[in-house]
User: Which sequence fits this backbone?
């Protein structure tokens, strides 16, 4: 398939079945969230938590689809004067995204029809943060796409990327191949969707693809629309997709002059999380590759990247009492506060890697005081004032454990003490 034909096939696919299927009216009852669009996490990773207050943010949702990331980021940045651009090839998808923004009363999103490949000629300017969820693996030339995106970043800007994982995607790849034989792309979408439904219903219980059935069912329910078709087509009938191993991701980022900043859930990419502690001497790229193999079934990778030449923001050590702990995940419904107030389990991590975490009584005291403004020392002082010096010492040790666990799952970040002199890097 030529580049132009590939891109046209992808556009036509999403013109017919915008993905994810979203009813704008649902905006009245919930906000769809994903770790790539958690601004507190993004701010921490690229700017040490100091960027939001500096103002003037520009964000691009590249391949926005029906707008999940653009809407989530616009909500979190509401009233902050941020400019958000949502770009997609599919006019039908942009229409849904714009309707969602209207229901929420979000006026500051610019919707742009076009391709990532066209960025240099679209005149959209440079961005502090570009989010690219579920898009890179559908580009006819991901290499060129990444270079274009890297070129649209300000010098200290960041990218958030979600791509299919090779090993976790193996079952889906087999089903895609079966369907290509059974119901080739020349047939109508309705006929191909029926073939996909029949095939899923008949897959023998021992088939390795069955291991992922729970994931597909969730995908169809949450993102497929009333009859699941949008997700079924996105999963099994897509005209153009590839998947990545960790070493391939490293290589593609390097080719585009980028480097990996972090995975969204760092602990999932550490061999020690899979009971293999003797890998600590390895370079990060090797540890991450090994962890992917140890996990064996990562269906997606969510990662953050920045220009290879960008300087790293200041980092705080876990024992720095002037540093400021912050929750990474926006909590518009106050769900986390409710769980903390009730002393209930927290869900640490997101998506398939989420697991329950029951904080100790002292842990709860610490977590309840985290507001993204109060330094660690003030949190510990608060506990000391209520329960004595000895409790303060124990709380400090408990904090180190929480920082390891909730930092590793991507739920909690520790930002260095705010610096009143700090300004974002000038465009250059
Ligand atoms: C799987 S959907 C993901 C949508 C959205 N990012 C999300 O995570 O919900 C992929 C989207 O990328 C868009 N897309 C694919 N290739 C593109 C390109 N070359 N330029 C811009 N958008 C593209 C498609 O139109 C589609 O809406």
Assistant:
């Amino acid at each position: 398939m030529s580049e132009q034909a590939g891109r046209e096939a992808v556009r036509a696919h999403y013109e017919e079945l915008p993905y994810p299927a979203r009813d704008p009216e649902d905006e009245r009852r919930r906000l769809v969230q994903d770790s790539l669009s958690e601004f507190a996490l993004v701010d921490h990773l690229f700017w040490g938590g100091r960027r939001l207050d500096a103002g003037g943010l520009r964000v691009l949702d590249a391949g926005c689809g029906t707008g999940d990331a653009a809407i989530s980021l616009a909500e979190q940045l509401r009233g902050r004067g941020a400019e958000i651009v949502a770009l997609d090839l599919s006019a039908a998808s942009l229409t849904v995204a714009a309707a969602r923004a209207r229901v929420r009363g979000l006026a500051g999103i610019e919707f742009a029809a076009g391709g990532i490949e066209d960025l240099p000629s679209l005149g959209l300017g440079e961005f502090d943060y570009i989010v690219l969820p579920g898009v890179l693996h559908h580009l006819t030339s991901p290499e060129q796409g990444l270079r274009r995106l890297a070129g649209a970043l300000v010098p200290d800007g960041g990218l958030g990327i979600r791509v299919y994982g090779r090993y976790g995607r193996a079952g889906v790849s087999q089903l895609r191949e079966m369907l290509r034989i059974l119901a080739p792309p020349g047939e109508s979408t309705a006929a191909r969707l029926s073939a996909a439904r029949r095939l899923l219903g008949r897959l023998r219980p021992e088939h390795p693809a069955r291991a992922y059935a729970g994931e597909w069912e969730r995908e169809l329910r949450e993102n497929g629309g009333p009859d699941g078709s949008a997700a079924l087509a996105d999963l099994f009938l897509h005209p153009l997709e590839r998947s990545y191993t960790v070493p391939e991701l490293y290589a593609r980022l390097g080719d585009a002059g980028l480097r990996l900043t972090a995975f969204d859930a760092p602990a999932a990419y550490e061999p020690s999380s899979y009971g293999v502690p003797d890998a600590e001497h390895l370079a990060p790229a090797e540890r991450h590759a090994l962890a992917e193999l140890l996990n064996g079934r990562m269906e997606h990778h969510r990662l953050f990247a920045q220009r290879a030449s960008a300087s790293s923001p200041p980092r705080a050590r876990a024992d720095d009492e002037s540093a400021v702990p912050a929750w990474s995940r926006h909590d518009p419904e106050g769900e986390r506060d409710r769980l903390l107030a009730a002393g209930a389990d927290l869900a640490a991590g997101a998506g398939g890697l989420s697991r329950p975490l029951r904080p100790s009584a002292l842990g709860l005291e610490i977590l309840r005081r985290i507001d993204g403004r109060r330094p660690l020392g003030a949190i510990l002082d608060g506990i000391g004032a209520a329960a004595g010096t000895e409790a303060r010492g124990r709380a400090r040790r408990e904090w180190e454990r929480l920082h390891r666990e909730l930092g590793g799952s991507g739920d909690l970040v520790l930002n260095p003490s705010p610096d009143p002199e700090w300004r974002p890097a000038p465009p250059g």
Q: What stands out?
A: The pocket of S-adenosylmethionine is lined by residues 7, 10, 14, 19-20, 63-65, 68, 87-90, 93, 115-117, 133-135, 138-139, 234 (CB under 6 Å). The chain has a mean pLDDT of 93. The first strand starts at residue 58 and ends at 62.
